[in-house]
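User: Can you recover a sequence for this backbone? Please restate the input before giving your answer.

Assistant: Of course. Working from this structure:
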């Protein structure tokens, strides 16, 4: 920072950085200027002047006399301008005192967004029925792309991944490493689980096991009062044909742990001589109802994207914004300058210099 006596403190570009705590004090500066002008107007006829008779100038005056006379007149003109030094110094002192009262500050603001985030488990069906092409190129490929876009839109959330067919496996635990999670999603295929069928209940159980709080954490008195929200997003054709746990039982267990369930039925219910694809909406609706979530039907890729966008809007963790202000006061700088101008004013007023300027 520059020294207080630096002229940079009067740079207009520097003043644009200031925020004045009491800006009304600045409006008094024009009023002070008006008072000085009024005083000069009222007292200009009452000033004492020393009249000097130079005598009549007659006849021819040589060049040396003219030069001496012009030099005298120039000196008197210069002194006449210097008589404004005293009121000018006083005006600067008062103005700087008003600037001091206005309290100039430079405020540097820093905003910090705090979000506790939520826990989300993605349960993706990778059974052979997800290779149907009613959602081009396949149901699984469409779900994979949309899930990656959903992960990109999250912030401060922990997301995990469970895959299931005839069995269920936890592929990725809850994490905020979205790059790793998207890599897992990009590698999903129908050959990852050789067991045939669709074990929806087992998939929900795997998700619940990943999301439930340990008993020690539940008894920890230092935990925040508000627990993280927990959500399961299950993508499947809904045709539950395998597994050891009934889906409705798993849904009730999720509700007991405070976990909300969103189910997405992927694909169209159609049947022809070449292919046969089924979408069992009933079990997915039941699971969503028990889990206090919502059921969605994705018949094409655009609808699937819209569903994830809707879930993204529904499941937003509250964001708390903290604003930090670093306030630096600079009123002392202008107080020092005001004192300097006051001292100059006293010097001009109480010494012979002031008398010379007045006369």
């Amino acid at each position: 920072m520059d020294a207080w006596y630096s002229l940079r403190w009067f740079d207009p570009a520097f003043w644009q950085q200031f925020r004045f705590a009491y800006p009304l004090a600045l409006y008094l500066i024009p009023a002070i200027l008006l008072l000085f002008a009024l005083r000069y107007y009222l007292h200009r006829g009452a000033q004492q002047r020393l009249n000097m008779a130079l005598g009549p100038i007659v006849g021819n005056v040589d060049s040396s006399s003219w030069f001496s006379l012009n030099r005298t007149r120039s000196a008197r003109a210069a002194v006449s301008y210097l008589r404004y030094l005293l009121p000018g110094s006083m005006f600067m002192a008062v103005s700087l005192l008003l600037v001091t009262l206005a309290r100039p500050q430079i405020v540097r603001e820093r905003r910090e967004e705090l979000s506790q985030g939520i826990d989300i488990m993605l349960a993706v069906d990778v059974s052979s029925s997800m290779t149907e092409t009613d959602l081009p190129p396949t149901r699984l490929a469409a779900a994979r792309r949309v899930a990656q876009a959903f992960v990109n839109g999250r912030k401060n959330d922990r997301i995990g991944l469970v895959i299931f067919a005839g069995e269920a496996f936890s592929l990725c635990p809850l994490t905020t490493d979205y790059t790793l999670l998207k890599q897992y999603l990009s590698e999903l295929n129908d050959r990852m689980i050789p067991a045939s069928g669709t074990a929806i209940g087992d998939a929900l159980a795997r998700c619940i096991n990943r999301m439930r709080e340990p008993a020690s954490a539940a008894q920890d008195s230092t935990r925040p009062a508000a627990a993280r929200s927990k959500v399961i997003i299950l993508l499947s054709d809904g045709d539950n044909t395998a597994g050891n746990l009934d889906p409705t039982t798993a849904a009730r267990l999720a509700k007991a742990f405070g976990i909300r369930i969103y189910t997405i039925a992927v694909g169209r219910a159609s049947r022809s001589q070449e292919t046969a694809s089924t979408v069992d909406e009933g079990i997915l609706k039941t699971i969503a109802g028990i889990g206090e979530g919502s059921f969605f039907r994705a018949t094409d890729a655009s609808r699937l994207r819209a569903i994830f966008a809707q879930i993204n809007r529904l499941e937003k963790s509250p964001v708390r914004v903290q604003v930090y202000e670093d306030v630096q006061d600079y009123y002392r700088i202008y107080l020092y300058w005001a004192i300097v101008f006051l001292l100059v004013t006293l010097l001009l007023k109480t010494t012979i210099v002031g008398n010379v300027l007045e006369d």
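That completes the design. The chain is about 45% helix and 20% strand.
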